[in-house]
């Protein structure tokens, strides 16, 4: 079946512009995650959605970052007034449910470059 | 808080060598433990997992045993291949704390030469 789909795969933007990154999770997966992968920094948790519960936003690095998940499916990560330090690969993942041993399925990511 | 510590890379091996990538963790509660792999140009994918103490996860010749007494989940493979060259991430997910996010280590790059 289809995996997690992210778009665009690459995005180059000028400093100060806003960007939107999209994630289509696997159908039926109730949990959705955003992570950021920076060179030499590993994977940094950003935000987690589970069903209709309030999202866990504890990883968002600043108030320029926000995310929403509409209809319990598609999610959009928005970065306002982008800065050069926002350059990274943004990864989306989904999992079947909130059970701890349910694995995450990752998309191929969006590579964001802020010039 | 929950955290994962991995050995720094790159790990450089010749084909058919024995591989160990160390991983230790700190967690409240009883976490599930995972190894994810990222091949060049591809997305992260689950390699193996273990959900309770003394469980052994295995896949594609890789193994890791959940050691609660040493809070470790070291990844091993008896004979690596060039195709195993990738970045390997150890991760944990706490089960009984309501804290559902997957916490990753910084990743270890493995380079296998013919």
What can you see in these coordinates?
The complex is a heterodimer of chains A (115) and B (114). Chain A is an all-beta fold. Chain A has strands spanning 5-7, 10-13, 19-24, 31-38, 42-50, 65-69, 75-79, 88-95, 105-106, 110-114. In chain A, strands 2, 4, 5, 8, 9 and 10 form a 6-stranded mixed β-sheet that branches. In chain A, β6 and β7 (75-79) form a beta hairpin. The mean pLDDT of chain A is 91. Chain B has 114 residues and is mainly β. Helices cover 0% and strands 50% of the residues of chain B. In chain B, strands 2, 5, 6, 10, 11 and 12 form a 6-stranded mixed β-sheet that branches. The model of chain B has no long low-confidence stretch (mean pLDDT 91). The chains are: A mainly beta (115), B mainly beta (114). At the A-B interface, β4, β5 and β9 of A face β5, β6, β10 and β11 of B.
State the helical fraction of chain B: under 10%
Oligomer: heterodimer
Largest sheet of chain B: 6 strands, mixed
Strand content of chain A: over 45%
Shape of chain A: globular
Order of helices and strands of chain A: EEEEEEEEEE
DSSP strand tally of chain B:
12
Give a count of the beta strands of chain A, DSSP E runs of length 2 or more. 10
**What is the residue-averaged pLDDT of chain B?**
91
Radius of gyration of chain A using CA atoms only: 13 Å
Class by alpha and beta content of chain A: mainly beta
Query: What share of residues are in beta strands of chain B?
Result: over 45%
Largest interface by Cβ-Cβ < 8 Å = A-B, 26 and 24 residues
Specify the biggest β-sheet of chain A: 6 strands, mixed
Report the uncertain regions of chain A: none
* Basic shape of chain B: globular
Radius of gyration of chain B: 14 Å
Give the rounded overall mean pLDDT of chain A: 91
Q: How many DSSP H or I helices of chain A?
A: 0
């Amino acid at each position: 079946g289809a995996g997690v789909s992210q778009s665009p795969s690459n995005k180059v933007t000028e400093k100060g512009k806003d960007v939107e990154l999209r994630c289509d999770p696997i159908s039926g997966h109730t949990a959705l995650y955003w992570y950021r992968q920076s060179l030499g920094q590993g994977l940094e948790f950003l935000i987690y959605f589970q069903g209709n519960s309030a999202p866990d936003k504890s990883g968002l690095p600043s108030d320029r970052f926000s995310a929403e998940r509409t209809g319990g499916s598609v999610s959009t990560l928005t970065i306002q007034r982008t800065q050069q330090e926002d350059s990274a690969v943004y990864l989306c993942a989904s999992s079947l449910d909130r059970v701890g041993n349910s694995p995450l399925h990752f998309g191929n990511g969006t590579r964001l470059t802020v010039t | 808080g929950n955290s994962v510590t991995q050995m720094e890379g790159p790990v450089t091996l010749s084909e058919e060598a024995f591989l160990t990538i160390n991983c230790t963790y700190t967690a409240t509660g009883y976490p599930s433990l995972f190894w994810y792999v990222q091949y060049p140009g591809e997305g992260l994918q689950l390699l193996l997992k273990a959900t309770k103490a003394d469980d052994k996860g295995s896949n594609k010749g890789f193994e890791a045993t959940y050691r609660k007494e040493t809070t470790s989940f070291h990844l091993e493979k008896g004979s690596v291949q060039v195709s195993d060259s990738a970045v390997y991430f150890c991760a944990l997910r706490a089960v009984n704390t309501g804290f559902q996010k997957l916490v990753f280590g910084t990743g270890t790059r493995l380079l296998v030469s013919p």
